[in-house]
Amino acid sequence: MECFVPYQRAFESAQKALKLPDSPEGLYDPIRYILNLDAKRLRPSLLLAACEACKGSIEDAYAAGLAIELFHNFTLIHDDIMDEAPLRRGKPTVHHKWNINTGILSGDAMLIVAYQQFEGYSPELHASLLSLFNKTALEVCEGQEYDVAFETMSAVSEEEYLKMIQYKTAVLVAAALKMGALIARSSDKVASLLYDFGLALGTAFQIQDDYLDAFGDAASFGKQVGGDIIENKKTYLVIKLQELGTRDQQQGLHQWFEEGGAHHLSEKVAKVKELFQQSGAAEATRNAVKAYTQKSQDILSQLEQLHIDTANLKAFSEALLVRNL
């Protein structure tokens, strides 16, 4: 993703220029802390790239990029509290470094600071950006609730699952791209196509993440392989097994999820992966990634016909999704 390095560096400079009050330190230091953790800044970088692709100035997009990055990190602080997570990007989470009350309050303040970033735009553009931001923020919260609710549901449909991952993850990517177009004063059609591109790209990435959690290489994937299986998560693989598998395969999955004790974890992962392969769930998941990837590329082709320079967006999407399936 070398083509995105200039956008990342430009955004990081803009982020460093963000002025937060010095006091109370207990409110603002946690915000500075999470913003300074090592991160790829992909969402604001996409916003800058989309703005430039639409012949806009990336300097005009910095404030919106900050709003997106602040909101994203706000959700991470609160997600970590909900998940009782001790680490974020290899460092202590905010609520572990300080406490839960600080995490909640600093997260809330972070959201308000995110909204403040839109104040410098013209009234018309401010209204458009804020409307999209509000819609997206609410959808992200809905996606998180769907994810929580799935933990106690006996079965989840493919439609329900796709809605969850799109709301929880993909809509923020889509919104960032559309904001870039709005700031560049591009047409409604271009803005909508960029949104759809982000939605397809984010969906492909999340389904791919499900697949790689089971079948990826731990070193390149960067996570524990089989973690979702150990936690009995209702991933796309599980949903497809329940749809495509035989009765015996479905019952086998149920037994491992219900009865697989801690002393059987390695065997549980191996056996469930076998069920994914035998039932056709693994192949169906790979095909879904390819389908959403193709959809994202088709949208870029439409944008090219509208004289939008999609070279960097295409390179980014290819780099993001070139992980071994």
Question: What does the model show?
Answer:
The chain has 325 residues and is mostly helical. It folds into 2 domains: 1-185, Farnesyl Diphosphate Synthase, CATH 1.10.600; 187-325, Farnesyl Diphosphate Synthase. It is 75% helix and 1% strand. It has a two-stranded antiparallel sheet. Strand 1 and strand 2 form a beta hairpin. It is globular. The two termini are 19 Å apart.
- What does the average pLDDT come to? 93
Q: What's the gyration radius in Å?
A: 21 Å
Tell me the number of strands.
2
Q: How much β-strand is present in the residues? A: under 5%
Topology-level CATH name of the largest domain: Farnesyl Diphosphate Synthase
The number of helices is 16
Question: Widest sheet: strand order?
Answer: 1-2
Question: CATH-wise, what's the superfamily of the largest domain?
Answer: Farnesyl Diphosphate Synthase
* Fraction of residues in H or I helices: over 70%
Outline, from the CA principal axes?
globular
Q: How would you spell out the order of helices and strands?
A: HHHHEEHHHHHHHHHHHH
The structural class is: mainly alpha
